[in-house]
Structures are given as structure tokens and as C-alpha cells.
Recover the amino acids of this structure.
């Protein structure tokens, strides 16, 4: 007859016994019960239900019925309590919380800089914590901080290391050794920068009245050049600027509405980072820059707004500039359908040389923006960017994605 194991868990204990299922049909006279002696210790009548000769009495169903659960052999192991292992950010936050003065926080930061093997250099009134990688984070990763005069790079490194990886620190310095009251911290991603911005506006530090003043850096990377020859294209102008300065990413030209083959005698020069743009502006301001014998006037362009990462993820609307006045909404529709399906487009509104397009999701707008920016349509290169009106609206609403510490 088949033997099966009986298991009954109770109070984190497993009781085991062997039993014989009730047969469907009457036992045959030649079955096991007919020739096993009733006096045998292995007979069926000895235990009910039947027990294995190798089963100790403490594991039988009788012991379970009598409540003798202390003698059972098999027990589940005690539940393992998962212990929380503090992260690097947690340890830094705890050390800062124990600090009583700004000097102590500065010392914490200097030790972190030494442990992380980061290097600090000072040149022309600017003190810089150098990045460890060449690739610069996306735009929106840099923050502007208003500082007490006594704070240096150690203070900033300790404070911002609570929220992620510090890519670079720039401090504007006096020759006396104190800072000029402000500095810039670039995190490794826009999300880390937004987390730091939210938390530091709520954090109280010793020696600082109120909260630390932190805001998004404008991170201006664009110069405005005017008085350029009308017959030069974007490609020709980019070659001319690359001969003179370094770090040029691309040149934007606005075409003449009456004659698209000519520009409007100005252009925008976009650099890979703010530092490259600042050095180029200084270089071209100190010594005149000529193209085809014409002196080019250089100045900072009006900075494009830098939206928080959470706001940017909500944006679904694009603004296209520098379009041919002859381009129709139907032409735009056909071009868009090469990159997204028609049902993902909400509307297209064109006005002279500009157009606004809305999509049902941010992802579709981002695909179109990356695909069509700089695309040549009807003899003119399009300039595609996020719609500032929509972004400013979300910023004014005070939208912010709450992040836990």
C-alpha cells in the first residue's frame, strides 16, 4: 500500500507523519492485514493512522493531537531580519547633520575630495573642481548657489554629494581667498540636480540664516553674432568660427523671408558648454573677428530657459522656427508622418515662418524634435525646440515631482 507524508504547519513548526489513504474498495483477504500479526510492532493496528517503524513517536499524529509540539525535530529557521545598509549618501547626510559649524562641513568635504581623488585648480579668479570624465552631462544638470563668503569647494562637495555624483564645481574667487558670493555645481544628471534643488530648499544648515539659496543655472552656451555677410550659409559660417575658436557645436542662421538663399545678417553660435562659449566671447572681444573683410560683433545671446527634468517630461509641444513662408500645414503633416503615426499628432498651427505642433505624448515630440532639428525643407533649415510657452506654464503651476530622501 502506498505511504504518503502528512504535514501540518502550526506556529512556525512542521509536524510530519505517515498515513495510509482510505481505500476505495474493501481489502482482499490476501491483503497485507491478513498476514501481518496483530501483535507485531509494525502492524496496522498499532497506530492509527499507520506509522513508519522509523518515525519517532514525537513525530506521529498522536503527538500532534496531544499538543506535544516542543519535541518535534523539524522546525523552520527563524526569519532573517534584513538589515538596512546605509549608502554613501546616507553616511554623508549623517555627518553633515552632526556638524555644528560651516567649518566642520568644509572639513568633511575636503576629506571626501581627498578620498575620491578629485583635483582642484584655480585660474583667473575661478576655482574649479575638475570632472573625472570628459563627457559633460545633459543641459539642466547645473545649479547656481548663493554662498556665504567663508564657503569653499569642500562645503559644496559635501552638501551636494548627499544627492548623487558631483561632476564639477566652479567657484568665483577674490584674490584674498574668499569667494564672490556665488558658485556653480554640476551634477551627473538633470534628475540628481532636481533632487538637490528640492531638498536644499528645505534643508537648514548651521551658520546660514534660512535655507541655502539654490536655483537652476541658465547654462548659456550660445553667442549672438551680427553684421555677418548675407550670402554665407550655416556650413560656411561654422567653418569660419571653428578656425577662430574651439568648442563650436553648430551655427544657426535665420533666412530672409523674401530671399531664402540669404541670411538676415546675424546668426547664433552654439558651443558644447558654457566655458567654451565664455572663452570664445573673450577671445573675439579682445581681438576683432573678420569674415570676408567684415568685422563681426559678438555678444551673449538671450539664454533659452532651462526647465526642470520633471517639467520637461510633461512637455508635448514643439516650436518650429525659420520656416519657408511657402511651407503649408499639409507639408508639415506629411513630414511628421514619416516619424510618427498620424493619430499621435494633436494639432499643427503655422503662422508665417513659425509653427507649433502638439503630440499626445512627450516621447513622440522628443523623437520629432531630434529628427527634424536642422532638417532642410524648401531650401531652409528648420530650427525645432521645445515650446517655451508650455514649459513656462508648467513652471508657473509649481509642478514638481515629489522625491523621497
Amino acid at each position: 500500500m502506498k505511504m504518503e507524508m502528512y504535514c501540518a504547519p502550526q506556529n512556525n513548526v512542521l509536524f510530519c507523519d505517515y498515513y495510509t489513504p482510505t481505500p476505495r474498495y474493501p481489502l482482499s483477504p490476501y491483503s497485507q492485514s491478513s498476514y501481518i500479526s496483530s501483535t507485531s510492532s509494525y502492524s496496522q493496528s498499532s497506530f492509527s493512522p499507520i506509522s513508519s517503524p522509523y518515525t519517532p513517536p514525537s513525530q506521529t499524529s498522536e503527538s500532534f493531537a496531544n499538543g506535544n509540539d516542543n519535541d518535534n525535530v523539524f522546525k523552520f529557521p527563524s526569519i532573517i531580519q534584513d538589515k538596512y545598509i546605509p549608502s554613501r549618501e546616507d553616511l554623508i547626510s549623517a555627518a553633515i547633520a552632526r556638524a555644528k559649524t560651516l567649518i566642520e562641513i568644509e572639513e568633511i568635504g575636503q576629506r571626501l575630495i581627498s578620498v575620491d581623488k578629485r583635483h582642484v585648480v584655480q585660474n583667473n579668479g575661478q576655482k574649479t573642481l575638475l570632472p573625472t570624465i570628459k563627457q559633460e552631462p545633459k543641459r539642466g544638470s547645473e545649479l547656481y548657489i548663493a554662498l556665504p563668503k567663508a564657503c569653499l569647494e569642500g562645503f559644496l562637495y559635501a552638501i551636494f554629494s548627499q544627492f548623487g555624483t558631483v561632476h564639477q564645481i566652479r567657484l568665483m574667487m577674490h584674490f584674498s581667498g574668499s569667494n564672490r558670493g556665488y558658485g556653480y555645481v554640476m551634477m551627473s544628471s538633470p534628475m540628481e540636480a532636481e533632487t538637490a534643488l528640492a531638498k536644499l530648499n528645505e534643508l537648514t544648515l548651521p551658520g546660514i540664516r534660512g535655507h541655502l539659496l539654490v536655483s537652476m543655472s541658465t547654462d548659456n552656451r550660445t553667442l549672438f553674432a551680427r553684421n555677418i555677410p548675407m550670402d554665407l550659409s550655416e556650413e560656411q559660417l561654422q567653418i569660419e568660427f571653428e578656425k577662430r575658436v574651439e568648442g563650436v557645436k553648430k551655427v544657426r542662421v535665420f533666412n530672409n523671408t523674401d530671399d531664402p538663399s540669404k541670411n538676415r545678417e546675424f546668426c547664433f553660435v552654439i558651443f558644447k558648454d558654457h566655458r567654451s562659449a565664455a572663452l570664445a566671447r573673450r577671445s573675439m572681444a579682445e581681438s576683432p573677428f573678420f569674415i570676408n573683410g567684415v568685422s563681426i560683433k559678438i555678444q551673449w545671446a538671450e539664454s533659452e530657459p532651462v526647465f526642470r527634468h520633471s517639467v520637461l517630461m510633461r512637455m508635448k509641444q514643439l516650436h518650429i522656427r525659420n520656416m519657408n513662408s511657402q511651407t503649408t500645414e499639409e507639408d508639415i503633416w506629411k513630414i511628421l508622418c514619416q516619424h510618427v503615426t498620424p493619430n499621435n499628432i494633436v494639432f499643427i498651427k503655422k503662422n508665417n515662418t513659425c509653427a507649433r505642433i502638439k503630440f499626445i505624448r512627450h516621447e513622440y515630440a522628443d523623437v520629432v524634435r531630434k529628427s527634424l532639428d536642422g532638417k532642410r525643407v524648401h531650401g531652409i533649415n528648420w530650427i525645432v525646440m521645445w515650446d517655451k510657452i508650455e514649459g513656462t506654464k508648467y513652471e508657473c503651476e509649481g509642478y514638481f515631482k515629489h522625491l523621497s530622501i
Remarks:
- The chain has twelve helices and 19 strands.
- Residues 1-6, 8-20, 31-51, 399-405 have pLDDT under 50 and may be disordered.
- Residues 249 and 272 are 6 Å apart (CA to CA).
- The first strand starts at residue 4 and ends at 10.
